[in-house]
What does this fold into?
Amino acid sequence: MINYPNGKKSAGSIALKSAANRGMSLEDDLNVTNDYYLQLKKANIHKKPTPVQIVHVDYPKRTAAKITEAYFKVPSTTDYNGVYRGRAIDFEAKECSSKTSFPFSSIHPHQIEHLDSVLYHGAIAFLIVRFNCFDETYLVEARKIINQYRNSNRRSLPYSWFQKEGYLIPFKLNPPVDYLKIVDAIHFKGDVL
It folds into this structure.
């Protein structure tokens, strides 16, 4: 409740959220960020739709359709792709609830192959991983993830590995996940827009 100087109280309460509990998922934050980049004509990056085969649809009303059965057509590649500063950009976004590590089972082999392929063809590729328990979001270059995925005997990457090998993306209000600053530092060192 808010207490006003005249002694009146507000009709409702205001929920104050810390950065740790702001209620947005990584995907939501990235979509807001990408919309921000698009509006400023900084980059054109979008979430890729997952290809789904619709099998059965019910029509409870003439104006409403309800999908009751559907299947994934093919394994999807990565979550986001687009263009930035004349280069293709492609990345996967993952959330992790563990305090100690990121499981390799969160990344599918076809996603690793896709990232390797886009790197081969000159794209900028990376993974964005959010450790929800710490409310920390890291950008990790795809080459580093691919190398660990293929050559490590572990079933996961320790949280400390992300602190050492990744780039912490500080949370901001607008855009919430400003990952292009890190892309600039890695891929466009010294270039001025």
User: Anything to note?
Assistant: The chain has a mean pLDDT of 85.
